[in-house]
Write a structure and sequence with these properties.
alpha+beta, four-stranded antiparallel β-sheet, PX_dom_sf
């Protein structure tokens, strides 16, 4: 999927059993190819499951691999590896790449902002007052001298604009 000038390709070449404090689980090595760079992130089934919960709210997803009873069976794990790879690549091939997927892949970018930043450089300043009050609505200071307080008048004009600015 192209994002601006970036291509993102995901491969899951391997998995391995990981033991931590008497708990064993499978870790899938996810290779992320983007902008001629490659990095690997290790993800568990629960990480994929959490991603699926987030992604399915914003985009149509490919079928998600279900948990099985024979979780240490090599054929089951190989099938899951292939299906996870298809799942991730299927989302990347869609019309919109969710930010949660970019975070999951540990990519420090936001796909929507990359496309919109190019468009912003052509747009000029478009600020204009959205709200104005008539002169009677201002909280005007008491005049002590013959000269008006230009500082207060300038601040009030800057904050509130005037009715003439909206025409």
């Amino acid at each position: 999927m192209e994002i601006g000038e970036m291509n993102i390709i995901v491969k899951i070449p391997s998995f391995r059993k990981y033991t931590d404090n008497e708990k064993s689980f499978t870790v899938f090595s996810v290779e992320v190819h983007h902008n001629n760079n490659v990095h690997t992130v290790d993800k568990r089934y629960t990480d994929f499951e959490e991603l699926h919960k987030q992604v399915k709210q914003s985009v149509n997803t490919p079928p998600f691999p279900h948990k099985t009873v024979l979780k240490w069976n090599q054929k089951v794990l190989e099938s899951r590896r292939v299906r996870f790879e298809q799942y991730l690549q299927g989302i990347l091939n869609g019309p919109k790449i969710p930010r949660s997927l970019l975070k999951f892949l540990e990519l420090n970018m936001q796909c929507e902002s990359l496309e919109s930043l190019d468009k912003l450089s052509d747009v000029g300043v478009t600020h204009q007052p959205m709200l104005a009050f008539s002169e009677n609505s201002y909280v005007t200071p008491q005049q002590k001298g013959s000269l008006p307080d230009i500082l207060v008048a300038g601040v009030l004009q800057g904050l509130y604009g005037s009715v003439d600015d909206l025409r």
